[in-house]
Amino acid sequence: MVMQKKNYTKINKPLKLIPIVFILLFYISSCYNDKAEILYPQTVCDTTVVTYSRSVIPILSSNCITCHGGNTPSAGIKLDDYISVKQQVDNGRLWGAVAQLANYSPMPKNGNKLNTCSLEKIRLWIVAGAPNN
Ligand code: HEC
């Protein structure tokens, strides 16, 4: 009787730790993907460093250059090199088109308006003088 009781407690001591280990593992793993950019891609807009190469080119590349790139760009407007993009900034058409202001042809043509974050990056870059940075 005494032996039995002794063994019982000896075996169960480590067993009692199992739930604690699981809770610890869960706690640690739950932090793994706690990155706001991953969890809420639409709500976080990083506009701390806006540059032509880092911010503007990726937006134009994925939304515009299928039509405005290469040797025969739509409306003769090239958006795949800085000089050409800068021209469209300076004549006001780039902003007019993406912000879809009155009297401008709304861009991207036949597509959804650029999201708020992309528009804000383009706007900040233009306000800064549209530098080739
Ligand atoms: C599906 C093809 C297509 C896409 C994608 C596209 N464009 Fe255009 N874009 C055109 C055409 C065609 C015109 C000539 C005007 C018209 O037909 O509406 C034009 C005209 C323009 C103009 C002149 C607008 C004006 O009123 O003077 C600008 C600036 C422009 N596009 C910029 C952009 C930018 C920036 C993007 C990406 C955000 C973009 N376009 C995406 C086809 C496209």
Describe this structure in words.
- The chain has 133 residues and is mainly alpha-helical.
- It has two domains: 2-32; 52-127, no CATH class.
- Helices cover 56% and strands 0% of the residues.
- It has seven helices and no strands.
- The protein has helices at residues 2-29, 36-39, 52-63, 65-68, 82-90, 93-98, 116-127.
- The longest helix has 28 residues, at 2-29.
- The protein is rod-shaped and about 85 Å long.
- The chain starts with a helix and ends in a 6-residue tail after the last helix.
- The chain binds heme C.
- Heme C binds next to helix 4 and helix 6.
Task: List the defining traits of the structure above.
133 residues; mainly alpha; 2 domains; rod-shaped; binds heme C
Can you give the helix content as a percent range?
Answer: 55-70%
Q: Compute the number of structural domains.
A: 2
Low-confidence stretches: none
User: What is the number of beta strands?
Assistant: 0
- Category from helices, strands and their pairing: mainly alpha
Mean pLDDT: 87
Give the topology, please.
Blueprint: H1 2-29, H2 36-39, H3 52-63, H4 65-68, H5 82-90, H6 93-98, H7 116-127
What's the gist of this structure?
The chain has helices at about 1-30, 35-40, 50-65, 65-70, 80-90, 95-100, 115-125. By secondary structure, it is mainly alpha-helical. Heme C binds near residues 77, 110 and 114.
